[in-house]
Write the structure tokens for this entry.
Amino acid sequence: MADIAGTALRLGHPTHARATAHHPGPDADTPLVADVWIGGDLGFVLLLHRRGDGLMAEELYYSSRGEDGVWERPEHLSGGIVGVETADPSAVEGVLAGAPMSVVAESESLVYTRPGPHSDGEAFVHVWELLVSGEADLIEIERCSPALPGTSVLSRRDLTGPLVLLVLLPGERARVQAVRRGDSSLTRLGDPLELHHPER
């Protein structure tokens, strides 16, 4: 699975489209990349695979990018059973119960971030997994960092599946909004999620 995660990091995005009748989701032999999060020289990949007992499971991998721009071999951070059959759109909507998105998993890991003026080279990163409705085409993320007080960075990410990774470093905050794309406009769905790194 580390090789699959490494390929996803080099590409910078998942390698498949949303689950459909032609792409129903992972099987026992073929893990799928659910999402990729890259922030600077840190990269995270969420993989989905089918266990031998038929349950869907997830694995979270992490890597850092060297000064030569090459990603190190990804390391496994965590894993477990997914609480929803993500390949079944009706199951996803049932869990969301009318909401455009919700947090389905949250974790914290100590990772190597490379030494800097305010860091000894390691930091606790906080990772959220968001479940997003099929009504949304993208998510909008407004991030605030203590490195740039009083400012925020807005980005948009197209959805390739119902699970989305969001990773924050200590002191960072994010406002996340599910968005539907129209012919010439964007429609924001529901209320945004306000997430922040719970600093130690």
User: Anything to note?
Assistant: Confidence is low (pLDDT under 50) at residues 19-24.
